[in-house]
């Protein structure tokens, strides 16, 4: 039986020190290729105007932008500390990314203004996923694609601790477990998705996570 979900936080990482540690962790995930970019592209994410929800230090979106060369790239992030790191990383990539501070449930962005929306590893922090799904629908243009990926709580004991002990730096390991405990199962996300304007989306699970993909009708 899968343990009940334990809510983690809906405020992101606000501490400058913790943000720097998370940046090191995210950079390592990028270097290993564990960032979901290949899956996003195969799901239909393409060029045009792209929005990333919860980019953190920005590596997932920046790696995606490097490969598909979008017309514009915007990140909506709740943490000012993370925005500062993402802006620095974007400069190092040479990508003209724009980051705005905001909550995914009420993004400070205009209607029907993006061709694609992505998010990786932040859904478990969303206070109300249905409201974020509805916001994704609002900002997407007709025919726009979305791909949301995150961990899933029911990966099992062996996978959980294999990943735990391979996570570096070690300071991030407690945060990994709390994030995993706050993540959703495929069935839970399907129920939430069915209650939203993205109800036609597809929920799939993989080795340690799940993905939501689809197109705005």
UniProtKB/TrEMBL annotation:
GO biological process: methylation
Residues of the Methyltransferase type domain: 51-148
UniProt keyword Transferase, yes or no: yes
Entry-linked InterPro entries: Methyltransf_11 (IPR013216), SAM-dependent_MTases_sf (IPR029063)
GO-annotated molecular function: S-adenosylmethionine-dependent methyltransferase activity
Keyword Chloroplast: no
Keyword annotations from UniProtKB, A to Z: Methyltransferase, Transferase
Pfam families documented for this protein: Methyltransf_11
Name of the molecule in the record: Class I SAM-dependent methyltransferase
Organism: Lacrimispora amygdalina
